[in-house]
Amino acid sequence: MSRVAESIGSAWRGVRWYLREFSGEAAYDHYLERHRREHPGEPAMTRREFERWRIDHSDPEPGSRCC
User: Fold this and answer.
1) Span 1-11, mean pLDDT?
2) How far is CA 10 from CA 6, 14, 25, in A?
C-alpha cells in the first residue's frame, strides 16, 4: 500500500471517529465497554434499550429549557 493511500485511510479513520463521537453514535460502544468491565457475566442492554434509557435520562428537568 502506498504512503498516500495509508495517509488517506488514516485521515478517514480519524474523521469517522470524530463524527461518531460528536454525534453520539459511539455512546453504545462506550456503554458496552464499561458494562463488560464493571458487570462481567451480566447481560447488557440491547441497542434499543440503551437508546431509550439515554433519551429518558438525557434531561432531568425538561421544563427548564426554552424550546
Assistant:
1) 88
2) 6, 6, 20
